[in-house]
Write a structure and sequence with these properties.
The protein is mainly α. About 45% of the residues lie in helices and about 5% in strands.
Amino acid sequence: MRINKLTDYAIVVMTNIAAMESKKIHTAKEISEISKIPLPTVTRVLKTLCSGDLLESQRGSQGGYALTKSPSSISIATIIECFEGPIALTECATSDCACSYETTCSAQKPWQKINETVKLALDKMKLNNMIETNKSNELLQLNMNLGG
């Protein structure tokens, strides 16, 4: 799985907003300067994040953008899905698989478990985790117990 550059920028933008005062209104220009991402790209990212109900925008001279929820309740998976759609490592990891081998494929169930583990890890990683410094440098402990 490889996320596109715009999704990567969205995670950077959201992390920067969360690291600043997340309830405060921030302008696109301010976010661009802090993130070092060009203003037209930041504007595009902000528009998509607003459409996905992750940010709210306020118009006017005192306008800007703010998180719709606390950083502890916005997952990285939600941001990725806002730009990329459902997280699926392979086509057969989703319920709408149209593969001609689906009925006889022995890899479908294992791929679904792998996909579920990756999505769960991304769901557990919240914006506040992205800005916290972890002394052990361990971001997330994955439970790779796939038996069952």
